[in-house]
């Protein structure tokens, strides 16, 4: 069977203020320190601990200990900061990770103790490989590996042994991470089985260790009681563990052996894949337990104790009478009898369970035969999430496989079932199952749907017909709500109402949720599809009445009465007023208050016409309703074919080389454009400004990106980022339209337009939620911005702020090329001139968009959306910052150092105003306020309040406001007189 990776949930947690005491030894960045400070666990801020720092204050050291809580959603950000500071820069750190209770990787900590006389490593490479092979040999007996099995093993070692004089021993060690998702019981059993193999004389038993192998393989790591040393961290005064060997493990079904292939270290980017080495990685592949292991698993005791493990097991399952019966099923007839008993005992209001059974059993072979693990396990997840009672349905579904074994497979399914989510609102649902059937077995889907709807149609008739069939004063047969309920069960997986008051509807089309005007399509279905179903149901009763043999007058009359009642309902379904009333009731049934908030929230998914790109799983797959996608590129995704696309790829590369002739900027822009595809703007938090005079390609590039991105490209009104009174948090449909957008392009600003720095920070953070609402919404929708903010302009915007938070985000990209009809070579002012192609967009972009998108996808799969800064871009950004430092220029022109000098606020305010007008004119849009000027002076010359003046400096009145020496008319007259004499 194939494997399925389970990824961490993406739910953002707000940062929390904490004492500033998280700095490790060395010189890490302020961003890293601030992140840890914001995640400190204290009495005032109690949170589940995910990380701990090993302190060293008891020995006179300066290493502060502490505990931290980093949410699953923020962990990738934490690892990015950690990797940059600790691994790339080599700053010393001492962090551990709390292990996951279940589902984390297999972690092995081998502590080797030798006699103190030992001064060098005693084991060799073959010992390491022997340990790995012994673990693999046991794993293949515990799990059902197949041809699709693939996982990684990481071996970490220290450079040298550690001689501990006070204990008279020499220590060495090995850390191993096996990339399999394993529960705690499996890790305990694995350790128990491996120790006798490793300790044998033909294995590692010949090593001269002074401790036993029972002690050497750390049991506290296996049980999860002890934290795992985060890769790159170390104990105080100890060396750090480094990755020395990486193995890719596959399985050969023919000989039943695991294959160990070495991956060269230079082929594995640890910074980009640090999460693979984390104890908190829940995305490793998981595998089905073997029957042999399941039989012995239940008798396992915990390490160091006699009490049974708390891991879900077959013994726990027998506490339920139903599960006890399941474990005694030995053949297909017994299974079918139990399924029939389950279905027959369902109450009318439990039709959801009946319907779930019908749809699951309609799924095709690709969901349960060999090689279907990914689909098969999702069916189990969905059923468990619907109801705990549906285990029998999952077993009946799985039993359709050719290699099914009642003896081995039922205990396995029961054990797995207990680990699945129950009633998880974020999990798979019955709608998911219905969608799978509709996509992969459309004929069966139509049959099941019709069968299920018959049940609901009968319910609408039974309530009034049996008791009131002869009562002429009775109601019309059933209420509007009853019919709306039938409509709901027909289309609940296809339609959603998001506003009852404003009649706003969405419809699932393919894998996209698209707005449907007032539910018009559903309203039409009342008088077509629904009406036909009632008509067919009436016909079936008429035919049954006519075919009764022997004739039964009472039954015939009852069937005809049923048919007449249904036909009257058919008449109602064709009337406009009746349809209006039914739709009114349907709005309440189809209403989902949180639906809009769910749309387009996964930053790792991008929708194409032919499927969905999953940037986290690095794959292109079919879309699902639970992806909640409403945006689309409006293009098919077509992976690169080197032979087919060679010419187009070269055209695009040539286009980019001309657009960005400076290599540094060229490389930066490829990474920047690729990063736009992923909605994790928090990774870079940048505001890119495309700056350049006319005919330099800015608009052409954005036009190409617009074609590639489709609905994932949005426009930002200039007022949103220039107005001081922003609409964020209020009625702002233009802001809500940016939800899920990946590229947000600002309207071109005019010269002198001032940027609202606070809004810009919020739009580019990727971590600060934005609130906005459309006119039809009663409450605001909260979402995290996924877009990269870009502005194309000939002139710079005015930015008054000079704080780090603003300018660390600014990236100025110079468009230095000139595309013209008569390019001049060797022009020193404009050295990069190229012949303009006026038909480029019309003739090539439609073809380019598919290949260009695929090229960007290949890049982003490698970079994961991280954009490396380049010197040219940063230099232009810093130059931009310096050009807006008006107060600094004023100080250069008008202030001189004087030990006896003083400056006063009124004096500085007056002189700055005069200087600014003489230098920049009377346009005050970019002029700093007096408060800003005074704050700048405080930083430069000390706090004003201390001396009621800035001391040690004074205004230089000997220069005019143009910065030149002021003339002295008397001196000039004297000079003239002397010359004349």
From TrEMBL:
**Which PROSITE patterns would you find in this protein's record?**
SF3_HELICASE_1
Alphabetized GO MF terms: ATP binding; hydrolase activity, acting on acid anhydrides
**Limits of the SF3 helicase domain:** 664-828
Give the span(s) annotated as Disordered: 1-30
The entry's keywords: ATP-binding, Hydrolase, Nucleotide-binding
Q: Which is an annotated Pfam family here? A: AEP_C962R
Report whether Nucleotide-binding shows up as a keyword of the record.
yes
Q: What is this protein called?
A: SF3 helicase domain-containing protein
Organism for this UniProt entry: viral metagenome
